[in-house]
Amino acid sequence: MKSDTMNNKHLFSSYDLLPNTWDEMYSIDSDIRSQYDIINEYLRSTSPEILFKKEELSKQLFMNQGVTFTVYNNNEGIEKIFPFDIVPRILTAFEWEKIDKGIKQRIKALNLFIKDIYHDQFIINDGIIPAELIYSCPNFLRQMKGVKVPHDIYVHIAGVDLIRNNDGEFYVLEDNLRTPSGVSYMLENREISKRIFPGVLSKNQIRPVANYPNLLYNKLKELSDQNDPNIVLLTPGIYNSAYYEHTTLARLMGIELVEGSDLVVKDHFVFMKTTNGLKRVDVIYRRVDDEFLDPLEFNASSTLGVAGIMAAYRKGNVNIVNAPGTGIADDKAIYIYVPDMIKYYLEEDPILKNIETYQLGKPDEYDHVAKHIKDMVIKKTDGSGGYGMLMGHEASDEEIKDYLENVRKNPDNFIAQPILRLSTAPCCIDGKLSPRCIDLRPFALSGKDGIDITPGGLTRVALKKGSLVVNSSQGGGSKDTWVIQ
């Protein structure tokens, strides 16, 4: 990488572009992309000592705010400060416009799919999606069959994971529709950026993200016919890995944070226990998975949910966000069919592409994956957090053999995708800029007046050199995401 023109040569001295990889800051000719001029100019004119101080300040701010996540190892939860890289990821207005339109199109189709699956099932009857794929999916809830939901919206909150491949195009990695997390880190990252880059954001008209809690609150409020609905956030409790986010969102929206033991169902209505007696609950933003939501209908041993809450929901006496059963649409086996859904329900071509995906339950596709295993990543269809995957290029022959033996026991539970070249972005590592792989999770909010997407989202970073795994539980961190006005 050429750095002769840089004043801060030390900072740029080890920025070596990865082969066959799109870099967010540098073009293939080693020229700075125009959107990075603002941060490049700042970094060039800032001494390494000051940048180091800014890094330390960001860590201190995260520590003081208690911005943590929990990693579980050997059944023990370990609290960790969420790693943050001070160099933002920057998107142009043109890039963001395509992302915005593509996600709105996708969420619209997925929502229509969920409604269809729990009602008329036209998409099955017309042969677009196999019936056995739906009924064998663990996230398909028969308890939701025929249930009418307010405004026909099932997916109120979504976090769609995108990656940029080496062709410069954005691809959808997965759709997070059940209890998507990470928005609190997006909000905190922006607050930190304002502190360590004073005046830079406003001067360059970077689109704001701070309105998300207010937007979410209004989307929740419009679900109730009450003038002043009682809205609560249902958390699994302090041992959940995203508990920091639960407390943050409840505080920013000005609503009560509750656990299952704080709620009770009487006469098919949900009430919150207070010092003044029972208070009716109208809307529940739940961060508890379906399986634990109601011990009378799902996991009988669950203490995280509320007995009878599903009956109250089906009668329309309480609203639950996201609707139970939305997981049918973000199962990795269903993901393959999302482009078909878009064409079927909307009669449009997908704006954002899927990643080529193989169903290992199909013998010919399994054979293809097995032959090209070193170029593949295999995932469980209901997996998350980067766990339970096989990265073919990193695995030993013995690990591959053992994994494929496990796959053959229940191949329908696995999919495979080619290992992609995630784009890289500059990270400040040991006082120097160094490229690291990233993805992007924009957050979409659906309401009766349409879909709103916060401009930017959470950019996750694989902080380990050469790693493609961005999950915080697997050694990843995050960046602020700037969208130029």
UniProtKB/TrEMBL annotation:
**Domain of life of the organism encoding this protein:** Bacteria
Identify the residues that the record assigns to the Circularly permuted ATP-grasp type domain, covering every copy. Answer: 88-462
State the InterPro entries in the record.
ATP-dep_Glu-Cys_Ligase-2 (IPR051680), CP_ATPgrasp_2 (IPR025841), UCP005522 (IPR016450)
Q: Which PANTHER family does its entry note?
A: BLR5612 PROTEIN (PTHR34595), SLL1039 PROTEIN (PTHR34595:SF7)
Q: What is this protein called?
A: Circularly permuted type 2 ATP-grasp protein
Please tell me the species this chain comes from. Algibacter agarivorans
